[in-house]
Amino acid sequence: MALPAAFPTEEGVGDRRGRLGVRAPRVFVFVPIIHFASARARQFHNATSFSWIVLASIRAFRLQRAHKRFVTWRRFLSRASLVLSTFLFQAQTRIVDSAGTPGAAEEEKKHENAKEAASNCLSGLNFFVKSIFVLLIFMKNESITFRFLYLLYSKTQIGYHFTAKQIKNAQRLNSGAHSKITFVRKSNCVIWVLPVNFDNYTYVITDEASGECVLVDVGDGKYAEQFMKGRGWKPTAILSTHKHWDHCYGNKYLCSKYPDLVVYGSERDRPPYCKRFVKHQEEFQIGTLKFIAYHVPGHTVGHVIYRLCTSEGAHCLFTGDMLFVGSIGKVFEDKPEVMFQSIDMIRNLVPEDTELYTGHEYALNNLRFNSIALSSLGNLTLETKLREVEELRIQKEPVVGTTISEELTYNPYLRAHDVEIQRVLGVDASLPDMKRRVETMNALRRLQVEWIKEQHIAAVAAMPPSSSREEGDSFLTE
Predict the structure, then answer these.
(1) What pLDDT is attached to residue 21?
(2) 85: which of 112, 288, 379, 424 is 20 to 30 A away, CA to CA?
(3) Cα distance between residue 424 and residue 478, in whole Å
């Protein structure tokens, strides 16, 4: 992929998924309530409309300060809609307050009806303009369609049924699992790696001393149950990193089969069937297995990662969608700054020799992209790791167990503070440190999205006509 010398610095893919998914619906409910309440009680109409305008203006001002490159046409339309809304309200008030024309009762009644019709018309138009204003303010540079679909996926049972269909498609389209089932033996436990869906991983941790069986991110409950039953195991607990259905779809099935099963998770995210809410840096024990939970908002507002401390002193970190081999998770529900704060916190709290067990198999694509995007830096460690991962993936071996110290050498998101990476990506050196890191992430995200599109097009073009449609659909699952 040919890279330009410098990249634009406007907001990119990284921060397109902000807080709209949480706050926008409340606003869209709040506005019509104010409108209809004020229409019912005209004596409060002036106060409510004035309050609405003040609140909306403050919100607009704050957004424009926070996003200096607020799109010009949206800024213009939002201001114009606010002015028009104020004008319509004033016109409506004049009509309502106008004195009736003296004359016959019928004429006066007609006049009152005309006033009411005009008032209702202006009221409806005013509400429409206000709705447009709110929409423009909260759209920012985001796709409102994506935010709406994300809300349906993450907050409703639609996401549950979508994941069920996704798992069936993965079983139908893949000739086998995306990776082999493998295990990593530690002093007092064994970590089994189960491939699920198109690229997910579920982890089964068996305590050899007590016989306890702990699962992390159950994507497919039936598959996990079959795996455990074949070995005579019974699950004791599920550790859910976050609420996305591809990581907790199996909670319902396993909890129905094992009523005593305890699901651990964040109170902010509330994964399905969660009975035990964990706090930041809370330590808890299951059998002889010691875990520490860390609250790492960014991918979701309540994302949690779990650190397993073995008896031999080794550390294993189950990262969900917060951290991947060669990359980090997308920021769906928070600010990029919050994601970087979570990353910094983990670097400070977790030893660098900690092994990473991620929620998805993204290693090969991530490292290939990093190798192309940062080729001018000549990172030999990255090239060596890429060749190693290519060999592993040919054999369908999972890429798990990389350490934080390794990631610090070839993961550009963990090195977003590096001035050389910022220079290659054309980030303005005069910006504050955190802003430079955010712009570095945005530039990397934009490039990676374009690179993935190129790979998708090339892959679909290389497929036989009979299979291109079905195989092409599988790319859309992520």
Answers:
(1) 36
(2) 112
(3) 28
